[in-house]
Amino acid sequence: MRKHFIHGWAARGLGLALAAGAALAPMQQAQAAAYATGGTGKYRNEILWLTWGGGVNGTDGVALANGAQTTATLQVANGQQIQVTCTLSNLNGALSSYRSGDYSGDGLEDMYNIDGTGGANNLVAGLATAMTSTASFDIDCSATRNGASYPIPGLVIADAESLESTLDGNGVPSEYIRGTAAGNWNILEMFAGNGNPYTATKTTNGGSQTMEFGPGGQGGGTSPVALSYLTFTTPTATPSMSFAMRGGGITAMSIGLLVPRADYGDAPSSYGTAAHLFYDWVHGNDSGVSASGTDINDASFRPGGLSPLTTDHLGTVGPDGEPGTSSSDNAYGIAGANEENGWPTSPAINAGSGNTVLTRSIACSGTGTVAGWIDFDGNGSFDSDERATGTCSGANGTASLSWTVPNDIQAGTTWVRLRYAQNASEVASPSGTATSGEVEDAQITIAQASANLVVTKTNTPAAGANDQANDTVVKGSSQTYTIVVTNNGPQPANGAIVRDPASSGLTCTSASCTGTTNGAACPTQASGSALLRALQSSGGAAIPTLPNTGTVTLTVTCTVN
Predict the structure, then answer these.
(1) 400 forms bridges with which residues in the sheet?
(2) Which residues pair with residue 397 across a beta bridge?
(3) Which end of the chain is more exposed for a tag (fewer CB within 10 A), N or C?
(4) Nearest-5° angle of CA 486, CA 525, CA 482?
(5) How is 3-62 classified by DSSP, letter by letter?
(6) Which among 381, 277, 263, 258 has a CA at the least distance from the CA of 324?
(7) CB neighbours of 199 closer than 8 A, spacing ≥ 6?
(8) Pick from 470, 543, 535: which is nearest to 508 by CA?
């Protein structure tokens, strides 16, 4: 969603912007969030900025105290609402809401704004200190998905205004921004501005790491601006960060979000809705920020940035974010065939493969679980006996899935669903929501069984299948006829039906299955009157398993009338 913000108060100083790896919930003093609609920032479509000061779009210049909150609620998928609430605590100093661009040297609104830069900017997303003061405070966030805890992977901080370039008498930057949390900081993006040096420092203390900006590059035109991404040591639904800001003028801080997207299955609604939430970017490592300070506005410095997702997905290309389910005839959804390519196009599945094992190698990337369903019987649903699972072998890997094909397999058009997730329990069902990975649906055709069956019948089996020239029968005598069913392939003919209606002049009294070869199986009615009745009925006797080169031998005993 994109909302417009109310502009307000003008001042000068320095600023800080913060962004979180998810979306946020309703609070006091901030009622909305907004993506920037303008500016040169690379991640206008990724960072969702939060507002402070009350009202739908935020209000400039409102005093803030401990307990002030900012929030946003996002519908990231059908029925999937993510909320993140961030609360101000342990405040030492004064803070007010602030709009970047109130000071002519501000740089953040050149990167991220609504309606323009300077006084035209309507993105009111700042927390500002009083003039010539220092403030320290904590930001405590809580993230949920449909009311349940939802871990977020990290945060972004940014200099939201203009840092002075000087040091005080003790060698401390006259203006600085410090952010401390349990995780690892990397510079995400840099706005060169006037090209002046801009110092960043990174230090580690136990499990926490601190990123400090300052001294900056204020002086002569628009000041440089830096954004830094914090990866939490462990993704958490309740992150807490500590901040300190010092300004010769005003300090400011903004909060934003890196929002997950959703991938949906594309099969008809009778198969149920499968959705996967995912972050479609991966943050990179910068070229290095030292504990003694690094000029990150130097041409030799390389920010880490965000790059497309390269792991935890099906096929060779990551998932496409979608607003909702989108059933299509070819099940390629929004992004097309190039994105949904986890299911192999060959070999074909044949209707005669019942009671055999079908194995397919599924392309994937990651170490999570791949689950697959094939609607073998074409009933419009994925049944429990139509599921197979495997583990992805790693980057650009595969997962081996093996199905025991049910005997009720039907020829015709049907559907396959593949799901990948880091948490195996989230893909135990063909429908539902997973918090990682991807779903792909494919429309496939189960071909008619292709098998060359040969049936012979003789009462002189020792002489072969052909009738003999001197073969005669005598009234009242008993004759035994041998029937041999052979599958010359290439496909199995499981479930093949054999019929042997009674001939005039014969009264048949019994039948039996006397032998099989190469994995074939006798009919269920293996012998006696039950087998005879089946052979002589219109329904025939079914051979449950008849693989390529398999044979089944039946004998029928009759009396000549």
Answers:
(1) 361
(2) 364
(3) C
(4) 40
(5) ----------B--EEEEESS-----SS---EEE--BSS-TTTTTEEEE--SSSSS--TT-
(6) 263
(7) 173, 213, 214, 215, 216, 293, 294, 295, 296
(8) 535
Question: Under DSSP, is residue 461 helix (H, G, I), strand (E, B) or coil?
Answer: helix
Q: What is the pLDDT of residue 327?
A: 55
| Contact between 497 and 542 (Cβ < 8 Å) | yes
Query: Whose CA is closest to 305, among 476, 147, 414, 186?
Result: 186
The stretch 174-184 carries a mean pLDDT of: 93
Check pLDDT > 90 for residue 26: no
Backbone angles phi, psi at 542, to 5 degrees: -90, 135
Whole-number Å distance between alpha carbons of 293 and 210: 12
Residue labelled with tokens 């995912």: 278
Q: Would you say the C-alpha torsion 235, 239, 242, 243 has a positive or negative sign?
A: positive
When the pLDDT of each residue in the chain is averaged and rounded to a whole number, the result is: 86
Domain ranges of the chain: 16-260, 313-447, 451-560
Residues sharing a CB contact under 8 Å with residue 391, sequence separation 6 or more, in sequence order? 367, 368, 369, 370, 399
> How far apart, in whole angstroms, are the C-alpha atoms of residue 52 and residue 124?
7
Tell me the average pLDDT across 51-64.
81
Work out the pLDDT band at 444, boundaries 50, 70, 90.
very high
CB burial of residue 292 (10 Å; 0-12, 13-18, 19+): exposed
The answer to whether 14 and 49 are in contact (CB under 8 A) is: no
Rg of the Cα atoms in the chain: 36
Residue with tokens 């935890």: 312
Which residue carries 């993230």 as its tokens? Answer: 143
Q: What is the pLDDT of residues 545-561, one digit of tens each?
A: 999 999 999 999 999 99
Domain 313-447 has CATH 2.60.40.2550: yes
d(CA 345, CA 439): 17
Give pLDDT, residue 341. Answer: 78
Least confident of 8-12, 261-265, 275-279, 282-286: 8-12
**pTM here?**
0.69
β-strands 551-560, 506-517 pairing: antiparallel
